[in-house]
Amino acid sequence: MEDKHLYRETQWDVSAEEGRAHHGLVAIGFAVLAVLVIAFCIWTFGGRGGAAWEFEADEALPIMTVKVAGSNTVAAPGDYWYPRDEFMQLQLSGGSIPGEEIERVTFDAALKTLTVKLKDQGDVPTTMDIALTEWHLEPPSGVAVSEVEHVKITYQDGSTNEIAKADGLAE
After folding, report:
1. Residue 59, CA atoms < 13 Å, CB-side half-sphere
2. pLDDT given at position 16
3. Which one has a higher pLDDT value, 97 or 119?
4. Which alpha helices (H) appear in the chain, and where do they start and end?
5. 3-class SS at 14?
6. Helix, strand, coil share of the chain (percent; to 5)
7. Are 114 and 53 in contact (CB under 8 A)?
8. In what order do the strands lie in the sheet with 64-68?
9. What is the pLDDT confidence band of residue 14, given thresholds at 50, 70 and 90?
10. What count of other Cβ atoms lies within 10 Å of the Cβ of residue 54?
11. Distance between CA atoms of 81 and 26, rounded to whole angstroms?
């Protein structure tokens, strides 16, 4: 009779261990799910910058200028940025076909850096010409354009480059 009682106790102990193991697996599953949700939010909303900036191509904006030797001012021939009163102007250079398109714009307040991620357009034919596209970047409420000190572009291949601030705008 005692052996039977010992067997039941042992069986209960094994069941309890299995129950604890099951609860451990459920806890690990929830932890993994929480990490995935956080990673998705960071990817979707741009990370440390919080709310993403709104953006649109704007053909009405003037092209940017830079000063060269002898105090001459010329059209800026590449990627540049320029702060305006209520928005940031961004100039992207690239082939006219397919053209550069923005996927998202985020701001890291700690680094005072605006990051512009370009859309991956895949393996499509491109033209050899250079087209300048002016973009109107609108900050979210609570962020002033004057807070931006650096602008970085993340290109389709994943490389990142800080671009220069233009000296002015064409008249």
Report:
1. 1
2. 56
3. 119
4. 2-45
5. helix
6. 30, 35, 35
7. yes
8. 72-75, 64-68, 168-169
9. low
10. 12
11. 49
The single-letter code of the amino acid at 80 is Y
DSSP, collapsed to helix, strand or coil, labels residue 74 as strand
Three-class DSSP category at 49: helix
CA dist., res. 6 & res. 8, Å (int):
5
Q: Note the Cα 67 to chain centre separation in Å.
A: 31
Sequence-distant contacts of 116-120: CB under 8 A, at least 24 apart: 116/90, 116/151, 116/152, 116/153, 116/154, 117/154, 118/92, 118/153, 118/154, 118/155, 118/156, 119/156, 120/156
Tokens of 151: 């602008």
Do the beta carbons of residue 55 and residue 48 sit within 8 Å? no
User: Closest by alpha carbon to 104, among 122, 118, 120, 87?
Assistant: 118
| Residue 96 confidence (pLDDT) | 78
